[in-house]
Write a structure and sequence with these properties.
Blueprint: E1 2-6, E2 12-16, H1 22-37, H2 43-50, E3 60-62, E4 67-69, H3 70-96, H4 109-123, E5 169-170, H5 171-194, H6 198-212, E6 226-230, E7 259-262, H7 266-282, H8 287-306, H9 317-320, H10 327-341, H11 344-350, H12 353-358, H13 377-390, H14 398-414, H15 440-459, E8 464-467, E9 470-473, H16 475-488, H17 513-516, H18 530-533, H19 564-567, H20 571-584
Antiparallel strand pairs: 1-2, 3-4, 5-6, 6-7, 8-9
Helix pairs in contact: 4-20, 5-6, 5-7, 5-20, 6-7, 7-8, 7-10, 8-10, 10-11, 10-13, 13-14, 13-15, 15-16, 15-20, 16-20
EC number: 3.2.1.4
GO molecular function, one term: cellulase activity
Keywords: Carbohydrate metabolism, Cellulose degradation, Glycosidase, Hydrolase, Membrane, Polysaccharide degradation, Transmembrane, Transmembrane helix
Length: about 625
C-alpha cells in the first residue's frame, strides 16, 4: 500500500509502505534532501521555508516643504560637504602655489612717443582749462577773447588752441590739425584704445571743434562771415603790444587781442568743414553732438562755395599761413562731407575733373604728393582711393577714382629711396620741402599717408603696387614711415630726439613763451619777458611731446630759443606726428578700421553706363 502526500519542497512525495528498515528509509530521505537542496529556490519556496519575515520600517526626514528618505538626505548632505571641502582644498593649493605672471610686453617707442605727443595739445589750450589738463605750469588764459574787440559780432571766442610758441589762434592750421587727428582716430581707434589714449585724443578733438562752433553762426543754414584769427603777430607797424612783439605767459596777457573776420575765404571755410565733418564720425555715438557738427560743416562748405576767395588775401595771415589755393580744400572738404553724410552731391563735387584739375591733380610739380596745412590734395587722393578699394562704386565715379588711385600710387613711389623726386639728408631724412626750414611737419604727414595706404592695401588683400615696371610690397611703405619717424625720435647723426621729453637728449630751449617763463607768481609785462626769451638757460618748464621744427638739410640743429626755424613746435606738425605714431604703434597685424568711415554711406548701386552711340556707316 502506498500513500501519497504533499512534498514540502513543492513536488509529489510517494512513501512506500513496505517492509524496508528504518535505516533504509533514513538514507532515502537524506537523498531526497540533497536532491532538493541542489535545485534553486524561487521566492515562493523561500517564503515557505523561512516563513513570514520582518519588514524594515523606512525612516524619513521632514524638511518642511518636502519629505525625503533619511538615507537620501544623508547622502546628499554628505556629497555637498565633500564637494565643498574638495573645492576649498583645491582653492587653497592654487592660492598658495607661486605662479608665473605673463606680463604684457612693454610699450614700443611709437606708443611711448604717442603718449607724450598728445600732451602738447594740453599745453596749447586756451580759455578756462579743465581740471584734468595735467600741465602744471599752464592756467586759464585769454578769457576775454571776442569781448575785447568791439568790431566783431562774435563775443565769446574763448577756447581753442594757440598755434605755436605764441598765443595766436590761427583757424586755418588749427582746423587742419583737428582733421588729421580725427582721421587717425577713425582709422586706428583700436590702437588708441590699446595705448590708453582714445578718450584723451577725443577730448583734444572736441576742445577744438567746440571752439570752431563759436567762430561762425553754427545754427544757421547760410552765413556771410567766419572768424579767421584771434590775436595779432605782425610787428611791422611798430612796437605795439601784440602776440609776437611781447614775450608773456598766456595767463598774463593784458593787451587787446583783435579778431580777424573774413567774408570770402573758401579755403578756410572748406577746411573747417572738413574738421567738423571728420569729427562727426569720431563722435557718431553721441548723436546730438555729431548732428550739430554735420550741420555746421554743411553751412561752412556752402559758404566756401558761395563766397569764393583765399582767406589770406590782404591780411597778416599771408605772412604766417598763406594759402596758395582753395581748390584742394574743395576736394578735401567735399570728401569728408560725403563720408559724414552719404550725400552723393558731395561725392560728385569731390570727383569733378575740373575741380581736381584746378587743385593740381593732373600735373606734377615740386610739391606733388606733399600733404600740409596749405595743400590737402594728397590726403584727399588717399581718401578717395580708399573708397575705390573697398566700395568699388563703379560708373560714373570709377574713371576719376582710378585716376586718383594711380596718382596716389605714383607719389607713394616718390617716397621710396629708389627714386629721386626728393633728396634725403645724409642721415636719411626725406626733404619734402626741398631743404627749406621746418621740415618735420611734412615728414610726419608723409609717414602717416604711407602707413595708412599700406594698411589699406593689406585690408583689401592687395600685396603691393607697381612703380613703373617694378613691383613693391606694401611693407616697403611702412618701412619708409618707420625710418622717418625713427629719425625724428633720435636715430639721426646728432642722436637728438626732436620730440621734447622723449629719450634723454632732446631740445631744451624750445621757442615757446609759456615753457620759457617760470611759474613763480611774478607777472612779467610785454617787454619784461624778453629776458627769458633771450636767456641761454634751458626752459624752466618742459613742454612734453612738442615736436620742434627740425634740423636743416645737413642734419644740423641749433637748440636756440630765438631761432624758431629750429626750435618752434606747431599744432599742425604735432597732429601729423600723432597720426603717424598711432599708425605705427602696437601690433602691426592690427590694421585699419575698414568700415567706420563708411557708416553714413548708403549701399552703392552703380548706374549702368550709357549705351554707345548708334553705329553709322
Amino acid at each position: 500500500m502506498s500513500m501519497y502526500g504533499r512534498d514540502p519542497w513543492g513536488g509529489p512525495l510517494e512513501i512506500a509502505a513496505d517492509s524496508a528498515t528504518d535505516d533504509d528509509r533514513s538514507r532515502n530521505l537524506q537523498d531526497y534532501d540533497r536532491a532538493a537542496l541542489s535545485r534553486p529556490l524561487d521566492e515562493t519556496q523561500q517564503s515557505w521555508l523561512l516563513g513570514p519575515g520582518e519588514q524594515k520600517k523606512k525612516k524619513y526626514v521632514d524638511l518642511g516643504c518636502i519629505i525625503v528618505s533619511r538615507k537620501i538626505f544623508v547622502w546628499t548632505v554628505g556629497t555637498i560637504l565633500a564637494a565643498g571641502f574638495l573645492a576649498g582644498f583645491i582653492t587653497l593649493i592654487v592660492k598658495t602655489v607661486p605662479r608665473h605672471h605673463h606680463r604684457p610686453p612693454p610699450p614700443d617707442n611709437y606708443t611711448l612717443a604717442l603718449n607724450k605727443a598728445l600732451m602738447f595739445f594740453n599745453a596749447q589750450r586756451s580759455g578756462k582749462l579743465p581740471k584734468h589738463n595735467n600741465v602744471s605750469w599752464r592756467g586759464n588764459s585769454c578769457l576775454n577773447d571776442g569781448k575785447s574787440d568791439s568790431s566783431t559780432l562774435f563775443k565769446d571766442l574763448t577756447g581753442g588752441y594757440y598755434d605755436a610758441g605764441d598765443a595766436i589762434k590761427f583757424n586755418f592750421p588749427q582746423s587742419f590739425a583737428m582733421t588729421m587727428l580725427s582721421w587717425s582716430v577713425i582709422e586706428y581707434s583700436a590702437k588708441y584704445e590699446a595705448a590708453g589714449e582714445l578718450n584723451h585724443v577725443k577730448d583734444i578733438i572736441k576742445w577744438g571743434t567746440d571752439y570752431f562752433l563759436k567762430t561762425f553762426n553754427s545754427t544757421a543754414d547760410t552765413i556771410d562771415r567766419i572768424v579767421a584769427q584771434v590775436g595779432q603777430g605782425d610787428t611791422s607797424g611798430g612796437p605795439e603790444p601784440n602776440d609776437h612783439y611781447c614775450w608773456m605767459r598766456p595767463e598774463d596777457i593784458d593787451y587787446d587781442r583783435p579778431v580777424t573776420e573774413c567774408h570770402s575765404c573758401s579755403d578756410l571755410a572748406a577746411e573747417m568743414a572738413a574738421a567738423l565733418a571728420s569729427a562727426s564720425i569720431v563722435f557718431k555715438d553721441n548723436k546730438a553732438y555729431s548732428q550739430k557738427l554735420v550741420h555746421g560743416a554743411k553751412t561752412l562748405f556752402k559758404f566756401s562755395r558761395d563766397q569764393r576767395g583765399r582767406y589770406s588775401t590782404g591780411n597778416e595771415a599771408a605772412i604766417f599761413y598763406n594759402s596758395t589755393s582753395y581748390w584742394d580744400e574743395f576736394v578735401w572738404g567735399a570728401t569728408w562731407l560725403y563720408y559724414a553724410t552719404g550725400n552723393n552731391s558731395y561725392l560728385q563735387l569731390a570727383t569733378t575733373p575740373g575741380i581736381a584739375k584746378h587743385a593740381g591733380a593732373f600735373w606734377g610739380g615740386p610739391f606733388y604728393g606733399v600733404l600740409s596745412w596749405d595743400n590737402k590734395l594728397a590726403g584727399a587722393q588717399v581718401l578717395l582711393s580708399r573708397m575705390r578699394l573697398f566700395l568699388s562704386p563703379g560708373y560714373p565715379y570709377e574713371e576719376i577714382l582710378r585716376t586718383f588711385h594711380n596718382q596716389t600710387s605714383i607719389f607713394m613711389c616718390s617716397f621710396l629711396p629708389y627714386y629721386t623726386s626728393f633728396n634725403r639728408t645724409r642721415g636719411g631724412m626725406i626733404q619734402l620741402n626741398h631743404g627749406a626750414p621746418q621740415p618735420l611737419q611734412y615728414v610726419v604727414n608723409a609717414a602717416f599717408l604711407a602707413t595708412v595706404f599700406s594698411d589699406y592695401m593689406k585690408a583689401a588683400d592687395t600685396p603691393g603696387w607697381y612703380c613703373g615696371p617694378h613691383f613693391y610690397s606694401a611693407d616697403v611703405l611702412r618701412e619708409f614711415a618707420q625710418t622717418q619717424i625713427n629719425y625724428i625720435l633720435g636715430k639721426n647723426p646728432r642722436k637728438m630726439s626732436y620730440v621734447v621729453g622723449f629719450g634723454n637728449h632732446y631740445p631744451k630751449h624750445v621757442h615757446h613763451r609759456g615753457a620759457s617763463i617760470p611759474k613763480n607768481k611774478v607777472k612779467y609785462n610785454c617787454k619784461g619777458g624778453w629776458k627769458w626769451r633771450d636767456s641761454s638757460k634751458p626752459n624752466p618748464n618742459t613742454i612734453v611731446g612738442a615736436m620742434v621744427a627740425g634740423p636743416d638739410r645737413h642734419d644740423g640743429f641749433h637748440d636756440v630759443r630765438t631761432n624758431y626755424n629750429y626750435t618752434e613746435p606747431t599744432l599742425a606738425g604735432n597732429a601729423g606726428l600723432v597720426a603717424a605714431l598711432v599708425a605705427l604703434s602696437g601690433d602691426s597685424s592690427v590694421g585699419i578700421d575698414k568700415n567706420t568711415i563708411f557708416s553714413a554711406v548708403p549701399p552703392m548701386f552703380p548706374t549702368p553706363p550709357p549705351p554707345p552711340a548708334p553705329w553709322r556707316p
